Amino acid sequence: MTHPSTTGSAPVLALRDVSKSFGAVRALRDVSLELLPGEVHALAGENGAGKSTLIKTLAGVHRPDAGQVLLDGAPVVLHGPGDARDAGVAVIYQEPTLFPDLSIAENIFMGRRPRRSLGRIDHRATHTATLALMRRLGVELDPDRPARGLSIADQQIVEIAKALSFDARVLIMDEPTAALTGSEVARLFGVVRTLREQGAAVLFISHRLEEIFRICERVTTLRDGALIASEPLAGMTEDDLVRRMVGRDLDDLYPKQDVTPGEIALSVRRLTREGVFTDVSFDVRRGEIVGLAGLVGAGRTEVARAVFGVDRRDAGEVTVDGRALTNGAPSTAMAAGLALVPEDRRAQGLVMDMSIERNIGLTGLRTTVRAGLMDRAAERSRSLDWAVRLQVKYTRIADAVSTLSGGNQQKVVLAKWLATGPRVLIVDEPTRGIDVGTKAEVHRLLSELAADGVAVLMISSDLPEILGMADRVLVMHEGRLTAEIPRSEATEETVMAAATGRAAA
Amino acid sequence: MADVSLSRAVRWDTVVGALLITVLLLSFGLVDGFGNALNLSFLIGNTLPIALIALPMTLLVVSGEIDLSVASTAGLSGAVMGALWNQGMSIETIIPICLLLGVVCGLVNGLLVTRLGLPSLAVTIGTLAAYRGIAQIVLGSDAVTDFPTPYLDFASGRIGDTFVPYALLPFLLLLAIAVVALHATPFGRSLFATGASEEAARFAGVRVRRQKLILFTVTGLMASLTGVFWALHYASARYDNATGLELSVVAAVLLGGIDFDGGKGTLGGAVAGVFLLGALQNVMSLQDVSAQSQIVVTGVLLVLSVLGPRVARQIAVARAGRRAVRAAPPTP
């Protein structure tokens, strides 16, 4: 175990030997952490490693059972988020919660807007102060614009501006990039660098390792609630970091097998949904993993929905193994052997209140039936079988899926669809928000499916995932397919060029 | 950790069942004239209209929808029955026509909800008024009472000197069908999924719109059947038959632990809720409690029935939380 360094400037905020338990669960064990001014510090660890508890301890939500929180070297007790804010600690969450009907300026100065005489609100001062904050961040956002309709990236900027307006010296960013596009991430990192130069201490959490290496100077790794290491990133490799997080050597994160593609399994012809995407045609062959890349909003998810039939198409044709699919009918798509693992597992992939067994069973309502009635024994064995095959970690198969971690929920969604024995599998952001160990498992699974002759269409905003897994990359830009790039020519540059419409490949 | 949703539903079922038995036992002991077979047959006979509509209503609420026009459909069906009887048509022709009418009423509700995407609460408040209005146009203020004796006897009579009304037998058959449909078929399974998360159900290939259309249509059919039964049971077909019955049905179903937000509950609980309400109404009638006061009691029950399961769930969650803490391994 390495100890935090004591060189350079004094830490603004630190934890010393902090432990925190919930019942019998020891979420943090003797963890120490030092956040230095002008430094971006990464917090790494798998789901359940204790990252959230650590953040909440810094933010005053949890009070440590043992150990101390140190502010400017002096022990403090944070009685709540308000205390943390007054101490200059701000947390930026993955999905900000702004008041949609209020303007950006009103959101930032909520409840403490500059006043004129007689208690009247000084709109001009609010506007000017907001402009000044935006200038500090190097971002152009109109202070009078309502928060409704802002992208998640813009909403985060507003949250950061709000934090600055409270004179925050410590910024904790909890997976801020999970829902951002490449260019939005670049802008956010620009802002983070600006803050760093202005002397702020930043704690940055991300599942995307390459981002940690791009923006951070130090990394603290947690595993099972314990501090594994706190060290400079310089000289470390992604493999080093993964080993610290997982506790063992992880096999290849992208275990792509070479498969000779078979006949065409999924054929999409001139698919159009007015105002959303236009004239989209492509094929996916048996054994092939085809990546569908593009910026968020380019129409990738919408194409998948229309192919599966959750949305109706206005024109075009979809065939699976030569069988034309009825428009707007997921049930016929399923019968033809098509499966869609949707983008939003909590809202679309799973019925959160239902058990693991019944969620997996939901795709088997036509098969686990005897004489028109549910065959409960068959349903249970089918669900158990797939839950075990995908190594879902659960206590009882009858537990609600909401009790599982994100990665295990995603495995249940996969189990639910693989149980249908699909010939064509569409996966939309299959590894979003899940930890690196589970991510590798999902990739291995997709690779094995392809090797077994399943045609896989993989939508992903995670470019390394696309490059690592896809035999072929389709790129969408503003509702149109703009490029098809074979694996050998696919690089971040060629894909991003097509995704941003800079070049036609 | 326990499956909170399931354990809660089971627990609330049990609570309502126990409550029903308690009320029955207390009434046997304390209320004069309650325990004899004739009164019990009245209790059951007078509760059957609520019970009949509660069957499809349970399925509707489980799938996340509601139909408030059921009492008006029943009234319309009775009014049409009376008007056609006055025209001299045979009862064997009239009843199928009334049932068909119910199918149409339900289909209209279903199409408005599924094709236009309107909320069922709003749609059926509208048709509640519309169907009742049509009933009044059809029959005016007449009361038709001279239906054929065998039909009147069947709808109001009982088997020998027992407490069993004839009409209870077909109801039990319908109950069995509904229980199987909701709890043992793929259709029922998909209703629970739709009620808990319509979007996730759609993504799993559940034909949500078709399913809802079927439910609204069956509900219309059962409401018109209830309207026919009502007119025969009380030997009176009037346009205002069964006014306010939707309140009793919804109260009974929610009291039985069917979650208003959809996705949770059992038919056993719903039927227990129905007969709990029926028993209370019977006892209040025996004690000469006015009809107005009975409506107040129904209203209060409606509020309690929404509140009760929530409280039960919070207790269940708190318990599950404690269990989880006790059972949790030392490391996550």
TrEMBL record, chain A:
Q: What range(s) does the ABC transporter domain occupy?
A: 13-249, 259-503
Name a GO molecular-function annotation: ATP binding
| GO cellular component terms attached to this protein's record | plasma membrane
What's in the keyword line of the UniProt record?
ATP-binding, Cell membrane, Membrane, Nucleotide-binding, Repeat, Sugar transport, Translocase, Transport
Superkingdom is Bacteria
Q: How does it sit in the membrane?
A: Peripheral membrane protein
Which InterPro entries has this protein been placed in?
AAA+_ATPase, ABC_carbohydrate_import_ATPase, ABC_transporter-like_ATP-bd, ABC_transporter-like_CS, P-loop_NTPase
Does the record carry Transport as a key word? yes
Zinc among the record's keywords?
Answer: no
Pfam families assigned? ABC_tran (PF00005)
Where is this protein localized, as stated in its record?
Cell membrane
Q: Which SUPFAM superfamilies match?
A: P-loop containing nucleoside triphosphate hydrolases
Q: Which Gene3D superfamilies match?
A: P-loop containing nucleotide triphosphate hydrolases
Output this protein's name. Answer: ABC transporter ATP-binding protein
Recorded source organism is Streptomyces zinciresistens K42
Q: What is the lineage of its organism?
A: Bacteria, Bacillati, Actinomycetota, Actinomycetes, Kitasatosporales
TrEMBL record, chain B:
Name the Pfam families for this protein.
BPD_transp_2 (PF02653)
Chief localisation class: membrane
Q: Does the keyword tRNA processing apply?
A: no
Keyword Cell inner membrane applies: yes
Per UniProt, what is the membrane topology? Multi-pass membrane protein
Identify the keywords attached in UniProt to this record, alphabetized.
Cell inner membrane, Cell membrane, Membrane, Transmembrane, Transmembrane helix, Transport
Which GO terms fall under molecular function for this chain's record? Answer: transmembrane transporter activity
Tell where it localizes.
Cell membrane
One GO cellular component assignment for this chain's record is:
plasma membrane
Q: Which residue windows are transmembrane per the record? A: 12-31, 37-61, 94-114, 121-143, 163-182, 213-236, 291-312
| Name by which UniProt lists this protein | Autoinducer 2 import system permease protein LsrD
